[in-house]
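Hi V.,

Quick status before I head out on leave. The structure for the redesign project is tokenized and pasted below; the design run finished overnight.
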């Protein structure tokens, strides 16, 4: 009995339980006394950390699901099959937490069902709401093959295989629509959003950034699986994904700076302003550092190099979304900064996500049944990469 009790007192479970418990208390207090009681949100700063992190960033990091599913089931890149299920699981969790974040952040979350009845086809939020509902359903259906395999439901597995291609195509289309439409929300704020982040092509920038973030998340979650789940994804496979990530980062950077130059806003990045350091930190994390790491043969073909490159992209994506939601509005909101309650709820979402993914991965056939290959020699990696830019 003592040993069992002692095991319950391991640091991380206790810390996780404390954080989640505190976050639940904050959520209850928020529902009782309103958003103003636990956040620094106001009429001039209506969107903050929960929108930037839990919603806009979370849904972008989940983009790896439709990228990997499309690569395997539509384009026939079977070599990515060992990582497609984990990518779908991560995407599914990302969308569930998107919905949970809305329930916390919306002023009147009990009215969410209105979009089902009262259609406003001219509203970007209407499209986002429907696309998120539909794509979450698609992700559940895509992940259902793991459940069918776990319980040996062969008949249902056969049905899934017959509809997998149209299902994945539908998912890719729906995901593309709402990933870009999230950027559309900010195109009506030209007089308020700082020129470093406002752009009429924000939908394009949002979609391009989500592709980079989704690929980076695949590499990042593979590193976490190796550390915490004792499952090692073949290094050549991750190197191949990193090739696609390098291209995606380059495309995003070209679009980003070409847009700034075209609009005459690039000069603002070299002036002494409150927004300037946040802009360059975003560019450094989301493009400069990972791009340098990925174009280097030494770091590109090492697990450590890929991990730090993917981690930098993930942090850069978070910085980009937070800059759009908060830093870009500094001139009208006076410099919003989240309360500790906002931070604790966001941290709780991340912790719960890790716990659920870990539990599912340990109890369901998320990983390929084939024994993962150990990291091969540099020549092996280069030989595998010569197949081409796979993503």
């Amino acid at each position: 009995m003592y040993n069992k009790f002692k095991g319950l007192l391991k640091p991380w479970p206790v810390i996780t339980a404390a954080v989640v418990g505190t976050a639940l208390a904050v959520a209850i207090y928020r529902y009782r006394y309103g958003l103003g009681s636990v956040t620094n949100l106001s009429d001039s700063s209506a969107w903050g950390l929960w929108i930037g992190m839990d919603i806009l960033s979370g849904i972008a990091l989940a983009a790896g699901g439709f990228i990997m599913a499309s690569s395997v089931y539509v384009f026939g890149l079977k070599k990515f099959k060992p990582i497609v299920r984990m990518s779908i699981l991560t995407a599914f969790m990302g969308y569930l937490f998107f919905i949970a974040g809305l329930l916390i952040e919306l002023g009147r979350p009990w009215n969410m069902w209105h979009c089902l009845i009262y259609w406003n086809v001219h509203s970007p939020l209407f499209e986002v709401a429907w696309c998120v509902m539909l794509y979450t359903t698609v992700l559940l259906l895509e992940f259902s093959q793991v459940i069918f395999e776990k319980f040996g439901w062969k008949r249902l597995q056969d049905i899934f295989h017959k509809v997998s291609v149209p299902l994945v195509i539908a998912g890719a289309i729906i995901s593309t629509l709402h990933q870009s439409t999230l950027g559309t929300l900010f195109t009506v704020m030209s007089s308020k959003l700082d020129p470093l982040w406002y752009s009429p092509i924000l939908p394009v920038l949002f979609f391009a950034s989500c592709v980079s973030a989704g690929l980076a998340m695949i590499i990042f979650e593979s590193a976490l699986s190796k550390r915490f789940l004792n499952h090692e994804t073949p290094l050549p496979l991750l190197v191949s994904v990193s090739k696609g990530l390098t291209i995606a980062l380059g495309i995003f950077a070209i679009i980003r700076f070409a847009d700034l130059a075209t609009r005459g806003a690039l000069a603002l990045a070299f002036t002494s302003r409150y927004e300037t350091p946040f802009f360059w930190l975003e560019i450094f994390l989301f493009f400069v550092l990972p791009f340098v790491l990925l174009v280097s043969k030494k770091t590109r073909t090492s697990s450590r190099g890929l991990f730090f490159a993917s981690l930098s992209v993930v942090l850069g994506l978070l910085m980009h979304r937070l800059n759009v939601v908060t830093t870009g509005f500094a001139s009208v909101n006076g410099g919003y900064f989240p309360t500790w309650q906002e931070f604790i709820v966001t941290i709780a979402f991340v912790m719960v996500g890790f716990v659920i993914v870990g539990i599912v991965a340990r109890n369901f056939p998320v990983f390929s049944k084939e024994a993962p290959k150990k990291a091969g020699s540099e020549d092996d990696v280069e030989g595998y990469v010569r197949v081409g830019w796979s993503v």
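Above is the designed sequence. The chain has one domain: 51-385.

G. will cover questions while I'm gone.

Best,
W.
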